[in-house]
């Protein structure tokens, strides 16, 4: 959720972000890996026929 | 205000926010809008559904790409002002709405609604989405701008790799009579309608990940160990800032515009005719030794190199410099094109490797452009300048196919030609690349009279840089 920080206050440092990093990267890399796998399957005939 | 969370001031990162959350936020946007390059998957289904020509259906994609260039150019300054979160949210709304309006057009058999929906509305989402993360990435990665923008723009190429097989499989679910493994099988209009609704909703949700993850760095933030002086000491890298309005008045902008135009035009020359081209190059006595399935594999192989080139070459530019990188794209590109024209028909391995490297340069040219702009014009309005530069893409999207199709039409029909028939078109592309090479050689640092003031009343002092 968005960070809202009052102007007059010193912003609090963010906590541990490991879980967020893992989840965020997974959301984009899993579909990309699926797309790469499907594309490589399509490339196979180029080298086998 | 319910939407105040979109404001730039509410997206300033708190201390310790990991900058490695920004690339996936950018990828969430680019992977979704990259679907634009997968429209061929349902092209035949739309032709059958609307009982119209391929050209009439192809107009949908053309409108979207023209709107991409126009909206990126017109909305670039707005994107810089409101920040990445509001821009990404707007892009998601337009992109998803485009699919939904397009679905309505297919369901009611009104092609003009598909033009309006996917073409115009979706195209605006494409343009805003394409430039929305660029400026933010460059500010988070002042030490590796090529790597950062390369990752995002690689996502645009990757988006098609995801959307193509996914769309086929979804259409098979919505229309049990459709066989995705059979190239002659055509999905029903109802299946494409359902596909559009599904993609619209799914892309909106994925793009929201980008919206809620993206942050702008606090004013004055730099990564640990970053030495701004060392970066600025590199040749062709400026610490000064140039507004978008001033940038288009500099010769450097137009040299870069020419460079991008030439690089994209040359790449399209191969991409446009990839499948019939490989078959024609190895045709003997009317029969090609390359089967249609192999030609399709060649197209897939090129799309891999298009995507990989965006990341690999753009990242490399952080080490060798932006100008030398474009010397590589254009100079080596010239040599490769000459080899393709003269010895490309010696063996399929030679042909495939030459074409693959050329296409990697095509992708690399897109991905390295934002970092080149940062080096020349600073970070102040680099996203807006990038938006204006993308009009070169729109222009090349018209010029590239015109050149290649013009030459090939004079020789016959692609799919029935031989290697020699491609030589005039390929040598023309060599000339196009040579023009780009000269334009790149002419790029020099921007004159000081175009720089923004850095005093206390300047925009730079307001923390917008």
Automatic annotation (TrEMBL), chain A:
Record-annotated membrane-spanning stretches: 20-37
Alphabetical keyword list: Membrane, Transmembrane, Transmembrane helix
Name of the protein this chain belongs to: Uncharacterized protein
UniProtKB/TrEMBL annotation, chain B:
Bilayer-crossing regions: 20-38, 58-79, 86-106, 112-134, 146-166, 186-206, 253-271, 291-313, 325-343, 349-373, 385-404, 424-443
Protein name (record): MFS transporter
Keywords: Membrane, Transmembrane, Transmembrane helix
Gene Ontology cellular-component annotations: plasma membrane
Topology relative to the membrane: Multi-pass membrane protein
Compartments where found: Cell membrane
Gene3D superfamilies: MFS general substrate transporter like domains
Organism: Promicromonospora citrea
Record's keyword annotation contains Glycosyltransferase: no
Superkingdom in the source lineage: Bacteria
Transmembrane as UniProt keyword: yes
GO molecular function, one term: transmembrane transporter activity
Domain Major facilitator superfamily (MFS) profile: 1-448
InterPro entries: MFS, MFS_dom, MFS_trans_sf, Proton-linked_MCT
């Amino acid at each position: 959720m968005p960070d809202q920080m009052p102007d007059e206050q010193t912003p609090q440092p963010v906590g541990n972000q490991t879980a967020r990093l893992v989840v965020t990267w997974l959301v984009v890399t899993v579909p990309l890996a699926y797309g790469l796998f499907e594309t490589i399957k399509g490339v196979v005939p180029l080298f086998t026929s | 205000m319910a939407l105040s969370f979109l404001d730039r001031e509410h997206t300033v990162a708190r201390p310790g926010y990991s900058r490695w959350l920004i690339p996936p936020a950018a990828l969430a946007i680019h992977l979704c809008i990259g679907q634009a390059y997968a429209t061929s998957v349902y092209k035949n289904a739309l032709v059958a559904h609307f009982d119209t020509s391929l050209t009439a259906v192809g107009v949908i994609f053309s409108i979207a790409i023209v709107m991409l260039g126009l909206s990126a150019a017109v909305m670039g300054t707005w994107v810089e002002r409101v920040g990445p979160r509001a821009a990404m949210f707007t892009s998601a709304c337009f992109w998803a709405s485009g699919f939904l309006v397009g679905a309505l057009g297919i369901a009611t058999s009104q092609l003009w609604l598909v033009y309006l929906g996917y073409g115009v509305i979706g195209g605006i989402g494409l343009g805003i989405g394409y430039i929305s993360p660029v400026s933010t990435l460059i500010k988070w990665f002042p030490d590796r701008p090529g790597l950062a923008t390369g990752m995002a723009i690689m996502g645009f190429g990757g988006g098609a790799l995801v959307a193509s097989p996914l769309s086929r499989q979804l259409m098979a679910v919505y229309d049990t009579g459709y066989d995705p493994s059979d190239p002659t099988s055509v999905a029903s209009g109802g299946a494409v309608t359902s596909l559009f609704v599904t993609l619209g909703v799914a892309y909106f949700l994925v793009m929201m990940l980008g919206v809620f993850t993206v942050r702008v760095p606090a004013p004055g933030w730099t990564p640990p160990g970053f030495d701004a002086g060392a970066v600025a000491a590199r040749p062709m890298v400026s610490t000064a800032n140039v507004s978008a309005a001033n940038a288009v008045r500099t010769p450097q902008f137009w040299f870069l515009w020419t460079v991008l135009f030439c690089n994209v035009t040359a790449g399209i020359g191969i991409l446009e005719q990839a499948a019939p081209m490989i078959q024609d190059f190895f045709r003997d006595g009317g029969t090609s030794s390359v089967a249609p399935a192999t030609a399709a594999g060649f197209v897939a192989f090129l799309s891999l190199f298009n995507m990989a080139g965006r990341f690999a070459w753009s990242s490399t530019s952080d080490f060798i410099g932006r100008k030398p990188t474009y010397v590589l794209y254009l100079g080596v590109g010239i040599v490769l094109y000459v080899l393709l024209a003269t010895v490309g028909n010696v063996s399929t391995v030679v042909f495939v490797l030459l074409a693959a490297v050329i296409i990697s340069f095509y992708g690399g040219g897109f991905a390295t452009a934002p970092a080149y702009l940062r080096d020349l014009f600073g970070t102040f309005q680099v996203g807006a300048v990038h938006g204006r530069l993308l009009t070169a893409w729109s222009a090349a999207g018209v010029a590239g196919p015109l050149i290649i199709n013009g030459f090939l039409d004079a020789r016959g029909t692609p799919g029935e030609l031989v290697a020699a028939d491609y030589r005039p078109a390929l040598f023309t592309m060599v000339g196009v690349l040579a023009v780009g090479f000269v334009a790149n050689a002419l790029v020099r640092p921007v004159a000081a009279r175009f720089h923004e003031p850095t005093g206390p009343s300047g925009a730079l002092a307001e923390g917008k840089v």
